[in-house]
Amino acid sequence: MNLLRLALFCLLSAAAAVRADFPVITLERADFVVAPLTARDAVPPPDRADWQPQALPDAWRDSHPELHTSGWYRFRFMVTPGDDPLQAVFLPKLGLNAAVWLNGVFIGDGGRFDDPISRNWNRPLLFLVPPGTLKPGANALYIHVRGHAYTQASLHPLKIGPDSVLRPIYEREHFLRITLNQTASLLIASVGVLMLALWLQRRQDTAYAWFAASALVWAAQSVNLYVRDVPFTTAQWEVLINASFQVFSALLMVSLLRFAEAGGRPLIPALMLSALLGPLTMWLAPDAQAIRVSAFWHLYTLAGAAATLAFLLRAAIRWHNRDARLLVGALGVVVVLAAHDWLMHSRHLLPGGHHLLLDDVYLLHYGAPLLFLAVGLIMTSRFVRVLNEFERLNEELEARVRLKHAQLEQTFARVREMEMEQAVTDERERIYRDLHDDVGAKLLSLVYRAGSPSAADLARSALQDLRDVVSRSGSDRFRMDEVAADWRAECEKRLAEAAIPLDWSQYGALGEVELSQPQVLNVGRVLREAVTNVIRHAQAGGVWIELGSDGHRLALRVCDDGVGLKDGEPAAATPGSGPGGRGLRNMDARAARLGGVLLRRQAPQGGLEVLLELPLAASPAAA
Predict the structure, then answer these.
(1) Quick one: residue 595, left, alpha or beta (phi over 0 = left, psi -120 to 50 = alpha)?
(2) Which residue, among 339, 368, 84, has the nearest Cα to 248 in the 3D structure?
(3) Residue-wise DSSP of 153-194
């Protein structure tokens, strides 16, 4: 007994969890009763009426073959209090129209119940539930379905739940069934108008006229997929729609055979026969036989389409007809979809049960645009091929002219570029010679006449700066490995003169890194100042310089084994730190210009370590 209670508790908990996670209720079982009245304002029958259990989907041609007017469905269901006060009832598919009542309150309907009946056979319906109508506990939902002898009345499983959940589902279905078909109809009508305009310009190409007529008839016929209220009675409209399908199919098949030059002359009279006799027999057929007559002619049209496909296939294989190959693919898809729709439309006429893939969706109208686009593409390609044939020589000539013109432009551009480069080089050489002959000679004299090593170093540093500024243009980019070689040579020369050994090391792919002129000048001056400090103040027995890059940052490390930082000496230059502080402040300023960081700290060898790190992005700072 305890186990039974535990199992019941688990089941109830699971049901509650499902209800919490899935607030939408799907109603698939109902009670059904034939409606004595067909008016839209008819109220639901009482509970004492002859209600019979009925599962959904319910197709009246199968479950109630004698019923053609209207019937009521009753759904009883339980709900728990919810957080969303705005509820809705969603009818995904029905035929032909419906009115909805909930707990004795009229919710809404799909339009007219009197002839001509509003057509919602391909239109989903969504009705908002007035607040307070849906009550916690037991509820009763009534659906009044209106049918007609010329249609196939039905009702599919419906849903009730929060509008915020059901509305996106409704909008998706509305887009697939209504909006998409409206767009396809507009596209097909546009293709038809285009082909008609082409035929008016070339009357001898009658295939364009056939195709234009079939496209315009199909665009008009496809209105049945999304129109709700029509100006004719339901019987007249159904006859018109089914008859226009025969006309459209015959016109289309004839146009395919003619413009693809696929033969099929014996088939054309049979196709035209369906376009004439089909509408006539449908108009004369009694109400009870209307569905059977339309099913026969639709099957006849399907056979005609299959025969047309066979002629196109023969032309594609035997005659290597390129246009026929494309049409075989498009028409093959259409024939398969048409067979599916015919089985859906006529399943009640066939013995046994039939269950199809996508059992409740008509597909032909989704494939028809594919066929029209294929035909339009072929017709357009013919004009394009003829036009291209006449324009080919002109295009080749224009291409040669453009090629020669482009080559000349490239040549002139290269000449201008070389002239500018030569002018820059000549100007740089002139400036260098002038500075070298004048300022350079004076600085060189100061190097040899200096009364102290510090003055000589200062003059030598100024001379090297002069050479760097002159030899490196601000618009140039310099490979880091080449610049590093110059820096190393300078450091080795200066330290060798001071009898201080140098250990130089590098890491990273320096040959793949480029530096801007401000970076080269400022890093070189930081390195030069660091070496000068070692020579002047460090009393070092050796210097270690490491230069490298990881592709994103540049790192320069200068270490010595000299006296290092004195007690109380700051690691960075500060105002008032004496004459030596000016050089340190210059080093800090240059590092800041480049967006980098300069550190001074005790070296592992016991002396001083100077570390410069900066990003490799081009610095806007001037030297």
Answers:
(1) left
(2) 368
(3) -EE--EEEEEHHHHHHHHHHHHIIIIIHHHHHHHHHHHHHHH
Whether this model's pTM surpasses 0.70: no
Would you state the structure tokens that stand for residue 595, as one six-digit string? 């967006």
Residue 597 CB partners (closer than 8 Å, separation 6+): 591, 612, 613, 614
Give the Cα separation of 401 and 544 in Å (integer).
63
Q: Which of 104, 137, 171 is the last residue of a domain?
A: 171
Mind giving me the DSSP string for 220-263?
HHGGGGT----SS-HHHHHHHHHHHHHHHHHHHHHHHHHHTT--
Structure tokens at 538: 């460090």
What span, in angstroms and rounded, lies between the C-alpha atoms of 123 and 91? 9
Rounded to whole angstroms, what are the CA distances from 276 to 244, 286, 307, 420?
Answer: 10, 19, 19, 83
**Sheet with 553-560, edge to edge strand ranges:** 502-507, 543-549, 553-560, 608-615, 597-602
User: Alpha carbon of 376 to those of 210, 268, 450, 592: distances in Å?
Assistant: 12, 21, 93, 68
Residues 127 and 191 in one domain: no
Element (H, E) at 466: helix 453-471
Q: What span, in angstroms and rounded, lies between the C-alpha atoms of 98 and 261?
A: 49
Strands 514-516 and 543-549: unpaired
Tokens of 108: 């809404």
CATH number at residue 30: 2.60.120.260
Indicate whether 253 belongs to any domain: yes
Q: Which amino acid does the sequence have at 111? A: G
Residue listed under structure tokens 């413009």:
259
Asked, as a colleague might, if the bond just before 56 is cis with ω within 30 of 0, I would say: no
Q: What strand order describes the sheet that includes 94-95?
A: 58-59, 154-155, 94-95
Cis peptide before 136 (omega within 30 of 0): no
- Each residue's pLDDT tens digit, 531-561: 888 888 888 888 999 999 888 889 999 999 8
The pLDDT tens digits of the residues spanning 219-278 come to 999 999 999 999 999 999 999 998 998 898 898 898 888 878 888 889 999 999 989 999
Which residues on neighbouring strands pair with residue 128, listed in sequence order? 88
Same domain, yes or no: 67 and 89: yes
Report the alpha-carbon distance of residue 355 to residue 353 in Å, rounded: 7
Q: Which tokens belong to 225?
A: 């997929």
Residues with Cβ within 8 Å of residue 526, at least 6 apart in sequence:
556, 587, 590, 591, 598, 610, 612
- Domain holding 524: CATH number? 3.30.565.10
Name the region of 423 (left: φ>0; alpha: ψ -120 to 50; beta: rest): alpha
State which amino acid sits at residue 116. Answer: P
Query: Does residue 506 sit in the same domain as residue 544?
Result: yes
